[in-house]
Amino acid sequence: MHRKQGAIYREQVEEAAAFLAHKISVRPDIILQLGTGLGALAEAVEEQVVIPYAEIPHFPQSTVTSHAGNLIFGTLCGRKAALLQGRLHFYEGYSARQVAFPVRVLSLLGARIAVITNAAGGLNPDFLPGTIMVFSDHIYLLPDNPLRGPNVDDWGPRFPDFSQPYDQRLQKTAFASAVELGFAEVVGGTYVCIPGPSLETPAETRYLRMIGADAVGMSSLPEVLVAIHAGMQVLGLSVVANVNDPDNFTPILLDDIVSAAGRAGSRLRQLLSRIVPQL
Ligand code: HPA
């Protein structure tokens, strides 16, 4: 990216942040990015200010029907929060930078914690549909990085450290909350992000498992990279919709993913309701 394009991107982010700052009276401390089948968490937000992505200057529009496109500000379990109901994916044709645009904008409004959720495919054979995986680490396999191009030093360092991408305290809070709720199927693991939209072949599934991933999806990591670059603490959560066994491969159908994520979604909502007040 040329220096000029970098300056344009910065201006766009700052314009979007200024637009939002005028719409809200309270700035968010926490961002929640809601994944497939998880949008219903928005109902729990009090004193809602709902802003469709389409109204926000320069905000990319979600083209996926399983994702609404609203930014919701308000109070969630007593905390000042901004919910991204609907996300953008690399496979839709956006650059990684565009995918992470909303998180960058919200970081400028002062958010310090990002909770990033998605529906994913299980690679770890111990997982079951409905398992909730807390990210302990990740593998970034997109052919584009949201931090590529001129660095804005006011936003974060040129070479951000990733030796500890997921905050330990947030992970512990998630596990302790799961125990309190009696949810057995909450485990830690490594998430790998593939470009999509084609799903994995059996050989690719075997490969992703071999390189150390426990769950695979087509989202979330551009947002995580920008959140960490911006100095935020990140909690990543996947709802495992399907488990892929390379030696006994069955078709992966979007309808199945959406319905499995929706079924597990109520447990994820309960978990988040317990985690958020402790963040
Ligand atoms: N692969 C990739 N992305 C997914 C899957 C999967 O099996 N399930 C849900 N999202």
Compose a concise summary of this entry.
The chain is an alpha/beta fold.
Would you write up a description of this structure?
With 279 residues, the protein is of the alpha/beta class. The protein has one domain (2-278): Nucleoside phosphorylase domain (Rossmann fold, 3-Layer(aba) Sandwich). Helix content is 31%, strand content 24%. The chain has seven helices and nine strands; from the N terminus they run H-E-E-E-E-H-H-E-E-H-E-H-E-H-E-H. The protein has helices spanning 3-23, 96-99, 101-108, 168-181, 202-210, 221-229, 254-275; strands at residues 30-34, 46-52, 70-76, 79-85, 113-122, 132-140, 186-193, 215-217, 233-243. The chain has a five-stranded mixed β-barrel. Helix 4 links the parallel strand 6 and strand 7. Helix 1 packs across helix 3 and helix 4 crosses helix 7 (254-275). The longest helix has 22 residues, at 254-275. It is globular. Bound molecules: hypoxanthine. Hypoxanthine (HPA) binds at residues 119-121, 199-200, 216-218, 241-242, 244, 252, 257.
Total count of domains:
1
How big a fraction of the residues is strand?
Answer: 15-25%
Major β-sheet, in short?
Answer: 5 strands, mixed, barrel
Q: In CATH's first tier, which class applies? A: Alpha Beta
Give the tally of β-strands. 9
Helix count, per DSSP? 7
The shape is globular
CATH-level-4 superfamily name = Nucleoside phosphorylase domain
Mind telling me which CATH architecture this is?
3-Layer(aba) Sandwich
The amount of helix comes to 25-40%
Distance between the termini: 36 Å
Order of helices and strands: HEEEEHHEEHEHEHEH
Query: What gyration radius follows from the Cα positions, in whole Å?
Result: 18 Å
Report the uncertain regions: none
Could you give the order of strands across the largest sheet? 5-8-7-6-9
CATH topology: Rossmann fold
Main structural class: alpha/beta
Catalogue the ligands.
hypoxanthine
Provide the residue-averaged pLDDT. 92
